[in-house]
Specification:
The protein has helices at 92-103, 131-140, 146-153, 212-222; strands at residues 2-13, 22-24, 26-28, 41-45, 62-67, 72-77, 84-87, 107-111, 128-130, 157-160, 178-182, 185-194, 238-244, 253-255, 259-262. It is α+β, with helices and mostly antiparallel strands. The strands form four sheets. Strands 1, 2, 9, 10, 11, 12, 13 and 15 form an eight-stranded mixed β-sheet that branches. Strand 5 (62-67) and strand 6 (72-77) form a beta hairpin.
């Protein structure tokens, strides 16, 4: 199936896992299939567990800005605290001390140059969602903006020019993948992404939205398109698509405006 109207509207990297994204115009692929620089760094506690929204709601109140060109991470806790800036290679000790003070327990910064730290290490490619999907989900919750939904679901690639849940074309039955072309890069769509408690919380404060999961599940089931492979939904708390990318695509780039074409698929 050709999807000539489907194209990349937004690209985001998350240089430090669980912190704020960086919007980019293009991104390249590592041999692992991950986007270069995405989730390259992570915050871990003394036992090696990630310090993220799943385990520590305090991370929602931590704002960050990362300069890809310089490697400088700026941080501030929402409130009167001043912005602090740290070079992630040269000042990691100072950064760890600042974060340890903020969280109230010792933390370290770790990095992985080969894959980063994706939630799905079997399918570490970029996650994909459509703008229309985010807009529809926002309409389910009167108090949420589209931007807030975007921040909660943290996809790498946002697709324009298509209806809500168009990205569900990018997965098939279990143990099957959907091959598609995104600009000059071939990707494989794998499965609808299982969501966690993070999306039920305000992305800026950590406050829980009442009955978010219950209402989301009901609406996702109710609005599931005919083209969606229903067998992949053992539950309906799923949104966006996980992908894999072959090592042959290493070094290739995707860009804002790149179109999508799905191969060997008539859906």
């Amino acid at each position: 199936m050709s999807a000539s109207l489907a194209s990349i509207a937004q690209l985001r990297l998350y240089p430090v896992k669980a912190l704020d994204p960086v919007a980019v115009n293009e991104a390249t692929f590592l041999a692992s299939g991950a986007l270069t620089g995405d989730r390259r760094f992570a915050i871990v506690d003394s036992t090696g567990n990630f310090v993220n929204g799943k385990r520590n709601a305090k991370i929602h109140s931590l704002r960050s800005h990362f300069e890809l060109a310089t490697g400088v991470l700026s941080l501030y806790a929402q409130g009167p605290e001043p912005v602090e800036a740290f070079h992630l290679e040269q000042e990691v000790d100072h950064l760890e001390a600042w974060l340890s003070s903020y969280f109230g327990f010792p933390v370290q910064i770790v990095q992985n140059l080969e894959m980063g730290f994706p939630d799905d290490t079997i399918s570490p490619g970029p996650t994909i969602v459509s703008t229309a999907t985010l807009e529809l989900v926002a309409s389910w919750f009167p108090d949420l903006t589209v931007e807030e939904v975007r921040r909660r679901f943290r996809a790498n690639i946002e697709i324009a020019g298509v209806p809500a849940f168009w990205e569900d074309h990018l997965f098939a039955k279990a143990n099957e993948t959907v091959l598609f072309q995104l600009g000059a890069v071939q990707l494989m769509g794998v499965n609808p992404c299982q969501r966690c408690v993070v999306v039920t919380r305000n992305s800026q404060t950590g406050a829980v939205y009442p009955n978010f999961q219950k209402n989301f599940v009901a609406k996702r089931q109710e609005t599931l398109p005919d083209w969606t492979e229903r067998s992949r939904f053992n539950h309906f708390f799923r949104l966006a698509v996980n992908t894999r990318v072959a090592a042959s695509e290493c070094g290739k780039a995707i860009r804002i405006g790149d179109e999508i074409n799905i191969y060997a698929d008539d859906r």
